[in-house]
Amino acid sequence: MSALLLTEIDHVAIAVNDLEAAIAWYQEVFGATVDHRERVDSDGVEEALLKVADSYVQLLTPTRDDSPVAKYLANKGEGLHHIGYRVDDCAVALQAVKDAGGRVIDDAPRPGSRGTTVAFVHPKTSFGTLIELVQE
Description:
- The chain is an alpha+beta fold.
- It is 23% helix and 40% strand.
């Protein structure tokens, strides 16, 4: 058995067409408030992070038509986009995926939002779920 590399759930990402409406709904229904908001131009998204215990609900909306989230919304509509797992070392976790023969989207860790380091694992490797490895 391998060493446990996932330390906790960082976030559950939900792709939405209207970020303001989604934020308002979570606030009205659940009392959730935005803990962090950021535009990530490299990924073509704007995100709002709603704190839930030690994790987040990440609401994502595209900022350009060619972004992966725009393509996701066009193909599948709004809904669960990916799950982010916290790891102590993104490079080590990414290498573990590669060593197991897994497909990755990022060949090397890269800067993420909130000053994190991230890498994505292809959903064909992980039973249909896009995974983001997140190092704080």
